[in-house]
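During data preparation, a discrete fold description was generated, as reproduced here:
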Amino acid sequence: MAKPKIPVGISARHLHVTQEDLEILFGKGHQLTPFKNLSQPGQYACEERVDLVTEKGSFKQVRILGPVRSKTQVELALTDAMKLGLKIPVRDSGDHSDSPGLTLVGPKGEVKLSAGVIAACRHIHMTPADAAQFGVKDKQFVSVKVGDADRCLVFDKVLVRVHDSFALDMHMDTDEGNACGAKTGDFAVIVE
């Protein structure tokens, strides 16, 4: 019997912001402007973009993802971090312990983050029904085969995240997608 397939989403560098930081960057009372919906219900890419700046380098016009969050967080691929001269940890979203910071530059102001820059660990979003179908639990790590015939890879330590509000989707960053020749819309399979 064929194993069920999981849609893949490649995540480029981006950030999530608090309402307070959004207003510093874009002005008092500013609200995020949806640009396009993402794979997860209620999540969207925004029109708003900021520059990421360190002493060693910068990235211009990096997109904010909405809605606003309780903590500001920047998610980079490891090669992005190298360009900025940062050594960042690979973490589950929201875990900022021992992570470096940088400066966010918007049209109305700057925010200096003392922490919050991470490489998000590759993960699969699932509903409880999906988890039952795949025989996995929340916070479990699995191995997943991804990519085209010429470059396919098996990724170990893929975090399973289960919640009623999620849609089935595996997220990996641009480094991981490039390594296996995957693009958004491809499919992955959990392997034993």
Residues 122-191 form a domain with the Barwin-like endoglucanases fold (CATH 2.40.40.20).
